[in-house]
Structure formats: C-alpha cells, structure tokens
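Researcher:
Attend to token order:
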Amino acid sequence: MTDIHIDKSKLPVHVAIIMDGNGRWAKKKGLPRIYGHRAGIKSVRTAIETARELEIKVLSLFAFSTENWTRPAGEIGALMGLLSRYLKKEKEEMKSKGIRFVVSGDISALPAKVRQEVRQVCEYTEDCRGLVLNLCLNYGGRQEILHAVNMIASLERTKKTQGIIDESAFRRFLWTGNLPDPDLLIRTSGERRVSNFLLWQIAYAELYFTPVLWPDFNRNEFYRAIKDYQTRERRFGSIQ
C-alpha cells in the first residue's frame, strides 16, 4: 500500500523508464553484476503491475541498448538468458492480464533463439487490449532515426513516397511508430541524462530522475514519479 495520492484525471498516457543501476546495486552488496540484473526483473514486474493499477496505457522499458554490446561477452550472454527465461515465464500471464507485448529496436542482431521467442510473445499477445508493454531491445535513438531516414530514402528511390515528409509521416518509420510519445521519462540510479533513448519521442516529455537503483524501484517509487509529474505545467511551447 501507499499513502501517495494520485489524481487519476492527470495520468500520463505513456511512461518510459531507463532502468539503470543493476550493476551498482550488485556491487554495493559484493555480488557479481548478474545478480543485479536478476534482482532488476522483480522491479520490471512491479513496474508493469503498477502501470496496470494506474491504468497507464503504454509502458516502455529500456532493456538493452545498441551500446550494451560493448559489455563483456559473459554479461551479454547472461542478459540474453535472463530475457529468454522472462519471456517464457511471463508469456501466459501477459495474455491473461491483457498485456500487449511489443518491441522497439533492431532485434535482427539478437541471438536466433531469443529473436524467435520475442516474435512469438508479440504474436501471442497482439490481440490484447490492456497495457502495451514496449520492450526496447538493441535500441538506440540515433540508430532509430537513421533507420527511418534510410527507409524513406529507399522508398523515394522506388518513387513510393508522395511529396514532403512531415512529422506525422516520419513518425510512421520509427520503431515506435504506432505508439504515442512518452509523457513521462523516468531514469533510476541518479544519472541525469537520456542515454540515446527515444530522442525523437521525448521532445516534450517530463523528465524525472531518482537516485534509487533499479532493483530498489518499487511501487512507492513509481507513485512518487507520477505524483511529481502531476505537479508539472505542460505547455508544449505555448504561454498558457
């Protein structure tokens, strides 16, 4: 339970989270980094359940960036194993709770087994009409924009585009093309940067930084972020 009052009339539609701090959490406890990643899965479940409880429509989680490939091979392998086990374990629960699972990023670089499991869960939950869980895998904001530009250029060469590309048309070529832009971006661990995450989409998002490491990000911390969001005056460039 929490004593934090949330105004249900002022909820963000789309919350995005940079889940940072797993490694530091493990280091503080004298444990290998993988233990932090395992502990972080519990916070993933908590964030999903809290988003459902608040009736937030879209939750985007930054799970693996294009830059994460520079980490030691053993850690990458362990992360892919955790992802595989998570998908297998949560697939039925997502379906039963009406959670639609989608992915943003270039999943072609993921191991074949993981890639297949990702696609299977996406297909299995595609008819769900509750929370949209957008897992960002092998994702980078600059890479996403370049991918969109190259897609448009390819269509231009084949004369399949019509006229000037405006924001609405450009959006369709993004990996998140079917999702609304985030209203709130949360980053855990105390870092105050967006780390190449949803660069196009967060143009007018409210940013919330918390020193809490991701494995310690619980329901109350999520509520605090929403409460802070509700104190913001969102003008989108106007003077109102």
Observations:
- The longest strand covers residues 58-65.
- The chain has one domain: 11-143+181-229.
- The chain has a mean pLDDT of 94.
- Helices lie at 22-28, 33-54, 73-96, 112-124, 141-157, 167-171, 219-229.
